[in-house]
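ok so i was messing around last nite and threw this chain in just to see what happens. nothing serious, just curious
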Amino acid sequence: MKRQLLLSLILGLFVAVLWGYTQQSAGQLLQSGLYQEDIKGDLDAAIQIYRKIIQDFPHHRSVAAQALLHIGTCYEKLGRGEAREAYERVLRDYADQAEQASTARVRLAALRASPAEAQEPDKAAPTSYKVADVDGGAISPDGRFLSYTDWSTGDLVLQDLKTGEKRHLTNKGSWEKSSEFAEWEQAISPDGKQVAYAWHIERDLCDLRIIGLDGSEPRVIYRNEEIACIAVQDWSPDGKDILATFLKKDRTSQTVLVSVADSSVRVLRTHSSASRMRFSPDGQWIVYDFAPEEESPELDIYLLPSDGSGGMPLVEHPANDIVLGWAPDGKSVLFASDRADTYGAWVIQVVDGQPRGAPELVKPDIAPIGVHWLGLTGDGSYYYSQSAWVSDVYVATLDPAAGTLQPPQKLVSHVGRDTSPDWSPDGRYLAYASGRGMVRDSLVLGIRSIRTGEERRLRLTMPRVHAFPLHWSPDGRSLLAQGRLSPPTLPGVQAFYRIDAQTGEVTPIVSRSLELPSNNPEVTQGEMEWPVWSSDGKAIFYRRSDTDTPYGEQSIVVRDLETGRERELYRGNPRPAGENEQSTVPAQPTEMANAGYFGASNLAVSPDGQQLAFVWSTPTSRALKVIPTTAGGEPLELLRVQSPERLFQPAWMPDGGHLLYGKGRIEGQEPTLEIWRISAEGGEPQYLGLAMEGLLLYGLSIHPDGQRIAFTAGRNLGSQTWVMKNLLSEIEGLSEQ
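result:
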């Protein structure tokens, strides 16, 4: 009996080891296929690898389904009809793999025509290419001119996309002379002669202006002390009115028409948040996207009569649907939707203000990263801009004794906005965030099993939960993240959130108003960022600022989550003594993420809960500091670097004796990333032998075994404007069916 039991245990152990080995091998093969497909561009080699996965690992259904899906995408890129067969097989053989099946359905919808029809040489296919290295604000109706904000000065600029010539329409001077600037949202008139824009004067005050594309006849159309911010949406087709969103100081929003002739304002609707809006070609309707529930990350599409007499839903779906615009004939509305997890262009026909039929896919996988949709032009092209970065999660093996890191491997196959990895307290899971980069910055939480490679992707239940930082609670049941309930350029409510690791349910645990005073003990004042759990999960540490400008008094506080009481550990000012007052230049994403803004950032609690590490940034230097969590006081400075060098995300080794941190250069040359180690008591830092050219660091986490690290590396894409050609022909083809 004992012998039989022993044999059973040995057999079970063998099966478990074999299972783990094959899972790892399947995952490694998938990464090899992705490397051949995405990096080397050898599609035939990638297809052979994907086929081997399906043949050798049929029981690993998630990996096999991904491999089959990528076979389809490879065949699509090769222009071969086998793509349809691959997608149909995904639906037939792997219907239980919801994510892959959903993507396969979208791909099949994109292949509406037969292979022969798809390969007709005279059939124009939508193609995309870059037209400018700026983040556009508006495109002219003929596609000739692009207006945008030059963030080096804040001026409104016009670029001729045919000649490349750039012309400043405003000349306010440097940021040192003036902190005013042109807001991002702009609109060029139907006759292509004027651009409407909002001009930011000071906090909670801006006005609506127009100016000729040749710089002539600048006018202030509207100013009101009660309007905190204005978002320009569109011109009426007759050019007589400007459609805009007013954000009032009481935090209500209004959709309005402002007369160009006499500056009179007609309120069409009052709502709680701004939307993207476009006039129909006949001027009778306004299409807009809107969250039907304030705490929903998903937008639906609605129609509003231009006289404001009422509204009605046009597209209702659990996905996030974003208005792109009207077809020129006014018979259909184009919108972006992530109903297949990645954003595609969809169209729905509209007759007399009512939807006709179901939405149809026009083009899958359209510009998923950091998109600002500009609009359709007369030749059927669609213009969009982006200002963002791409990032991926990597894992590297650390030899603590030798003090070296092995070359890292990319953990997941997604490309784009994966960031902020964090190991669970028991080391069994790695969580990370996938930012979708669209209008409401909705977040997908990925939780990957280290043993099996299986992954759950949870779409969060609240908008604007950001990816930096993301931390497991000590009990392993939830994660901590930060976010806000309105666009970063507008007043709103900022909060720290608890994310349920099983359901994705999001619960705010600390919130604050950007402006309004409050007697609610659960609401704090001033900017707050970089939350981390205490070692027992009963409190959080975070950085709090007295203002939301780059400079000002800051403090690091610990907040008891049960009582709401806060205790200050440290207070300081990131401005060096005697430095002149700086203008309140709006912080750009690259500066905030890569430079860490100014003051305290990247907080990290030691394993025993007794020390808190953080990066302290000034305009001229960055320092890594450690402070006791009980007594507070003056922190111990472990090291300091001078600009343009940067320090990133310290992480404690499990024994608490050392910290790892990232160091890089951003300005003046191609960005670089290195990972270093230093004693928690100070001393000479040690380079761990890992350097990545052209990459930046967002998040660093050490496995409880001390032998694996996870981090995010990404490349800043800069600002670009792109065009999708021939999209209108696809819409017309649908309307003829």
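not much to say yet. The first strand starts at residue 127 and ends at 132.
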